[in-house]
Amino acid sequence: MSTEENKALVNAFWKVVYEDRDYERVADFFNAKARYEDVPVPEGPGIGPQGIVKRLRHGHESVEAFDHEIHRMIAEADTVMTEHTETWRFHTGEVIPLPFLSVHVIRNGKFDLWRDYSNLATVISGAPAWWLEHAATGKPEDFIS
Question: Residues 66-101: pLDDT tens digits?
Protein backbone atom coordinates (compact mmCIF):
# COMPACT_ATOMS: atom_id res chain seq x y z
CA MET A 1 0.00 0.00 0.00
CA SER A 2 1.12 3.56 -0.60
CA THR A 3 1.64 5.99 2.27
CA GLU A 4 -1.56 7.78 1.23
CA GLU A 5 -3.50 4.49 1.34
CA ASN A 6 -2.01 3.77 4.76
CA LYS A 7 -3.10 7.18 6.03
CA ALA A 8 -6.59 6.62 4.61
CA LEU A 9 -6.76 3.29 6.48
CA VAL A 10 -5.83 4.98 9.76
CA ASN A 11 -8.37 7.76 9.16
CA ALA A 12 -11.07 5.15 8.50
CA PHE A 13 -10.06 3.40 11.73
CA TRP A 14 -10.37 6.61 13.78
CA LYS A 15 -13.87 7.13 12.34
CA VAL A 16 -14.95 3.63 13.37
CA VAL A 17 -13.49 4.08 16.89
CA TYR A 18 -14.63 7.62 17.73
CA GLU A 19 -17.61 8.46 15.52
CA ASP A 20 -19.25 5.09 14.94
CA ARG A 21 -18.02 3.44 18.16
CA ASP A 22 -18.43 0.15 16.33
CA TYR A 23 -16.12 -2.14 18.27
CA GLU A 24 -16.93 -5.21 16.17
CA ARG A 25 -15.74 -3.39 13.04
CA VAL A 26 -12.57 -2.39 14.91
CA ALA A 27 -11.49 -6.06 14.78
CA ASP A 28 -11.56 -5.97 10.96
CA PHE A 29 -8.62 -3.54 10.91
CA PHE A 30 -6.18 -5.99 12.56
CA ASN A 31 -4.12 -8.96 11.44
CA ALA A 32 -4.52 -12.23 13.38
CA LYS A 33 -1.46 -11.68 15.61
CA ALA A 34 -1.69 -7.89 15.91
CA ARG A 35 -0.91 -6.06 19.16
CA TYR A 36 -2.37 -2.95 20.75
CA GLU A 37 -0.12 -1.39 23.37
CA ASP A 38 -1.36 1.50 25.49
CA VAL A 39 2.20 2.26 26.58
CA PRO A 40 1.66 4.03 29.93
CA VAL A 41 -1.06 1.63 31.11
CA PRO A 42 0.05 -1.41 33.12
CA GLU A 43 -2.71 -3.87 32.11
CA GLY A 44 -0.72 -5.19 29.16
CA PRO A 45 -1.42 -5.31 25.44
CA GLY A 46 -4.43 -6.44 23.52
CA ILE A 47 -3.36 -9.35 21.34
CA GLY A 48 -5.26 -10.47 18.27
CA PRO A 49 -8.31 -8.70 16.84
CA GLN A 50 -10.73 -9.76 19.59
CA GLY A 51 -8.18 -9.14 22.35
CA ILE A 52 -7.69 -5.62 21.00
CA VAL A 53 -11.45 -5.07 20.91
CA LYS A 54 -11.74 -6.27 24.52
CA ARG A 55 -8.90 -3.94 25.57
CA LEU A 56 -10.49 -0.96 23.82
CA ARG A 57 -13.96 -1.71 25.16
CA HIS A 58 -12.62 -2.01 28.69
CA GLY A 59 -11.51 1.63 28.64
CA HIS A 60 -13.99 3.17 26.22
CA GLU A 61 -17.44 1.68 26.68
CA SER A 62 -18.21 3.49 29.92
CA VAL A 63 -17.21 6.85 28.43
CA GLU A 64 -20.40 8.57 27.27
CA ALA A 65 -18.92 10.41 24.27
CA PHE A 66 -15.66 11.25 22.57
CA ASP A 67 -14.52 14.22 20.56
CA HIS A 68 -11.56 13.40 18.35
CA GLU A 69 -9.26 15.93 16.72
CA ILE A 70 -6.34 14.98 14.49
CA HIS A 71 -3.58 17.56 14.60
CA ARG A 72 -1.18 15.92 12.18
CA MET A 73 -0.53 12.60 10.55
CA ILE A 74 2.68 11.44 8.92
CA ALA A 75 3.43 8.25 7.04
CA GLU A 76 6.59 6.54 5.91
CA ALA A 77 6.67 3.10 4.35
CA ASP A 78 4.42 0.84 6.48
CA THR A 79 4.12 3.20 9.47
CA VAL A 80 1.59 5.96 10.18
CA MET A 81 1.92 8.29 13.18
CA THR A 82 -1.00 10.43 14.34
CA GLU A 83 -0.83 13.29 16.82
CA HIS A 84 -4.38 13.71 18.10
CA THR A 85 -6.53 14.65 21.06
CA GLU A 86 -9.32 12.50 22.41
CA THR A 87 -11.73 14.41 24.61
CA TRP A 88 -13.45 11.98 26.94
CA ARG A 89 -16.92 12.97 28.20
CA PHE A 90 -18.38 11.05 31.13
CA HIS A 91 -22.10 10.90 32.01
CA THR A 92 -21.19 12.29 35.45
CA GLY A 93 -19.91 15.54 33.89
CA GLU A 94 -16.14 15.06 33.83
CA VAL A 95 -14.37 16.05 30.61
CA ILE A 96 -10.76 15.05 29.88
CA PRO A 97 -8.84 16.35 26.86
CA LEU A 98 -6.19 13.66 26.36
CA PRO A 99 -3.35 14.24 23.87
CA PHE A 100 -2.02 11.11 22.15
CA LEU A 101 0.65 10.04 19.73
CA SER A 102 -0.45 6.84 18.01
CA VAL A 103 1.71 4.59 15.86
CA HIS A 104 0.21 2.10 13.40
CA VAL A 105 2.32 -0.45 11.52
CA ILE A 106 0.51 -1.88 8.50
CA ARG A 107 1.06 -5.23 6.77
CA ASN A 108 -1.11 -6.54 3.95
CA GLY A 109 -3.69 -3.79 4.40
CA LYS A 110 -4.25 -4.32 8.14
CA PHE A 111 -2.60 -3.26 11.38
CA ASP A 112 0.12 -5.45 12.88
CA LEU A 113 0.80 -2.99 15.68
CA TRP A 114 -1.05 -0.08 17.24
CA ARG A 115 0.84 1.71 19.98
CA ASP A 116 -0.55 4.69 21.95
CA TYR A 117 1.55 7.16 23.92
CA SER A 118 -0.23 9.48 26.34
CA ASN A 119 0.16 10.95 29.80
CA LEU A 120 -1.54 8.58 32.23
CA ALA A 121 -1.55 11.30 34.91
CA THR A 122 -3.99 13.28 32.75
CA VAL A 123 -6.51 10.44 32.94
CA ILE A 124 -5.92 9.72 36.62
CA SER A 125 -6.36 13.35 37.62
CA GLY A 126 -9.49 13.93 35.51
CA ALA A 127 -11.48 10.70 35.38
CA PRO A 128 -14.23 9.93 37.88
CA ALA A 129 -13.38 7.49 40.67
CA TRP A 130 -15.90 4.92 39.40
CA TRP A 131 -14.17 4.80 36.00
CA LEU A 132 -10.70 4.46 37.57
CA GLU A 133 -11.97 1.57 39.71
CA HIS A 134 -13.39 -0.12 36.61
CA ALA A 135 -10.20 0.46 34.60
CA ALA A 136 -8.13 -1.14 37.36
CA THR A 137 -10.03 -4.44 36.99
CA GLY A 138 -8.38 -5.27 33.65
CA LYS A 139 -5.97 -8.21 33.67
CA PRO A 140 -3.52 -9.03 30.84
CA GLU A 141 -5.14 -12.42 30.19
CA ASP A 142 -8.46 -10.66 29.52
CA PHE A 143 -7.09 -9.03 26.37
CA ILE A 144 -5.80 -11.99 24.35
CA SER A 145 -7.88 -13.49 21.56
Answer: 999 999 999 999 999 999 999 999 999 999 999 999
- On the CB side of 124, how many CA atoms lie within 13 Å of its CA? 7
pTM: 0.93
Closest CA to 125 of 102, 95, 84: 95
Q: Could you list the beta-strand ranges (E) of the chain.
A: 30-38, 46-47, 65-76, 79-89, 95-107, 110-118
Task: Report the CATH number that the domain containing residue 67 is assigned in CATH.
Answer: 3.10.450.50
| C-alpha span between 80 and 140 (Å, rounded) | 26
Q: Residue 24 is which amino acid?
A: E
- The total of structural domains in the chain comes to 1
Assigned domain for 142 exists: no
Q: Which domain holds residue 43?
A: 3-136
Rounded Cα distance, 28 and 11, in Å: 14
